C-alpha cells in the first residue's frame, strides 16, 4: 500500500489496521475475501470494489453510496438474494483488470462519511448470513495490503473511475506518442495527451519559449519561466510532468539527419508549418507504417477582420487519402496565409482538439462511423467540414 496515501487517509489506514484485505488498483479501492452465501447456501468469498474520491493524494468523502461486487449475488442463509442491497446485476469491465458482477445500494440518510464506514457497512450486511453458517468465516484476514503502482500518472485518474470509463481510457495505454512542434497547436495537443494513459510522450522542438509564446499556449507562464528562456520542449516537459511521469524533451528540429529518432513511436502529431520538414517527416512515418495527424492553421487579416481555417488530417498505414490535404510547399509560397504567422490561442486549441478527437477515434475511444480523414473548420462561416482533399 502506498504509505503516502495511507498517511493522508485515516479511513483507509483503519481498514488495514482492522485486518481487512485492502488493495488500491488504479483509482479503485478493493477489499478482498468477503464471506457470503450463494443461492446454493454455500459460503464463498468475494470482493467489494469502490471508486475512490481523492484530493491531494488523500481519500475524501465518497461521492457515491453504491458499491460493486465481484462474485455471485450474496444471499441469506436460505439462499434467497439479499434484497436490501440489490441494485444491478451486471458484468462490467471497470478497467485496471477489474471486472465486477453486481452493484449494491445501501444508502445512509447523509451518505457515508468515509471509506471505512462504507466498506464495513456492506461487509456486515453481506457477511452476516455466512457467519451464521460458518463461525470462522471472516473478512479480516490481516493479509498485507497492496497497491498497483504501475501508473503513468503522478496521481490516480479519478475522472475515469468516477465515470466508469477506465476500461475505455485504457485503449489509449501502452502507446509511445510523439509531438513535433510546440509553438502553437502542439502545446495544446500535449495538454490533452498528458491526461491520457499513454506510456510515453516525446516532445520535439529546439526553439526557445519566449514571451509571445505564452499568449499562444495553454496555462499561464510565470515571469521566471520567461526569464529562464529555456526551450519549448524543456518548458512544457517541466509543466506537464506534474501530471504525467513519462514525458521526454528532445531539443531538436526533426530533419533528414535525425528523423530516425521517431522510430519506435506508435503515433505522431505533426504541429509545424515548414513544408520541407513535413515532407521528410511524413515520408519517414509512411515508410515505417507509423500513423500520424498533421495539424494546420491558416489565418490572415482582411479589412480589419481575421479569417481562415483550422485543419486536422489523419494518415494511417491503411489509409493515406488525407495526404492531399497536407500542404508540403508552405515555404515556397510567399503569399501563403502561414507567412503572416498569425496564431490565436483558441484556434491552436481547436486544432489540437480536432486532432485529439481524430486520434481517439482511431484508437477506438470514440465511436467512428464515418471514418473521415480530414476535418476543416472555417472561421468566418462557422462550418466544420469533413473532407479528404482540401489543403490549407
UniProtKB/TrEMBL annotation:
GO terms for biological process: cyclic threonylcarbamoyladenosine biosynthetic process. SUPFAM superfamilies: Activating enzymes of the ubiquitin-like proteins. Signal peptide: none annotated. It comes from Hungatella hathewayi. GO terms for molecular function: tRNA threonylcarbamoyladenosine dehydratase; ubiquitin-like modifier activating enzyme activity. It comes from the Bacteria. This is ThiF family adenylyltransferase. Residues 169-297 form the THIF-type NAD/FAD binding fold domain. Residues 11-158 form the DUF6791 domain. Pfam families: DUF6791 (PF20590), ThiF (PF00899).
Amino acid at each position: 500500500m502506498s504509505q503516502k496515501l495511507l498517511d493522508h487517509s485515516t479511513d483507509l489506514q483503519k481498514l488495514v489496521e482492522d485486518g481487512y484485505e485492502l488493495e488500491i488498483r488504479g483509482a479503485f479501492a478493493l477489499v478482498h475475501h468477503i464471506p457470503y452465501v450463494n443461492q446454493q447456501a454455500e459460503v464463498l468469498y468475494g470482493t467489494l470494489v469502490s471508486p475512490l474520491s481523492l484530493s491531494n493524494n488523500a481519500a475524501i468523502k465518497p461521492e457515491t453510496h453504491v458499491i460493486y461486487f465481484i462474485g455471485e449475488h450474496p444471499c441469506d442463509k436460505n439462499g434467497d438474494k439479499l434484497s436490501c442491497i440489490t441494485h444491478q446485476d451486471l458484468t462490467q469491465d471497470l478497467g485496471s483488470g477489474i471486472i465486477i458482477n453486481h452493484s449494491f445500494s445501501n444508502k445512509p440518510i447523509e451518505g457515508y462519511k468515509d471509506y471505512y464506514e462504507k466498506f464495513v457497512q456492506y461487509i456486515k450486511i453481506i457477511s452476516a448470513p455466512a457467519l451464521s453458517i460458518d463461525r470462522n468465516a471472516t473478512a479480516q484476514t490481516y493479509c498485507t495490503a497492496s497497491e498497483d503502482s504501475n501508473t503513468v500518472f503522478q496521481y490516480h485518474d479519478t475522472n475515469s473511475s468516477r465515470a466508469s470509463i477506465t476500461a475505455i481510457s485504457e485503449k489509449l495505454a501502452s502507446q509511445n506518442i510523439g509531438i513535433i512542434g510546440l509553438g502553437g497547436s502542439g502545446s495544446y495537443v500535449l495538454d490533452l495527451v498528458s491526461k491520457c494513459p499513454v506510456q510515453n510522450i516525446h516532445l520535439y522542438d529546439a526553439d526557445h519559449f519566449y514571451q509571445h509564446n505564452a499568449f499562444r499556449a495553454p496555462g499561464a507562464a510565470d515571469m521566471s519561466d520567461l526569464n529562464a528562456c529555456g526551450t519549448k520542449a524543456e518548458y512544457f516537459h517541466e509543466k506537464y510532468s506534474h501530471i504525467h511521469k513519462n514525458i521526454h524533451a528532445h531539443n531538436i528540429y526533426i530533419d533528414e539527419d535525425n528523423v530516425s529518432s521517431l522510430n519506435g513511436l506508435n503515433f505522431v502529431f505533426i504541429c509545424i508549418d515548414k513544408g520541407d520538414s513535413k515532407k521528410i517527416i511524413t515520408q519517414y512515418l509512411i515508410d515505417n507504417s507509423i500513423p500520424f495527424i498533421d495539424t494546420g492553421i491558416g489565418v490572415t487579416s482582411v479589412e480589419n477582420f481575421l479569417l481562415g481555417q483550422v485543419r486536422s488530417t489523419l494518415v494511417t498505414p491503411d489509409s493515406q487519402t488525407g495526404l492531399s490535404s497536407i500542404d508540403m510547399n508552405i515555404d515556397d509560397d510567399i503569399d501563403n496565409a502561414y507567412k503572416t504567422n498569425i496564431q490565436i490561442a483558441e484556434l491552436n486549441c481547436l486544432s489540437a482538439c480536432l486532432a485529439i478527437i481524430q486520434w481517439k477515434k482511431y484508437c477506438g475511444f470514440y465511436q467512428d462511423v464515418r471514418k473521415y480523414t480530414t476535418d476543416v473548420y472555417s472561421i468566418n462561416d462557422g462550418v466544420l467540414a469533413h473532407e479528404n482533399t482540401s489543403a490549407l
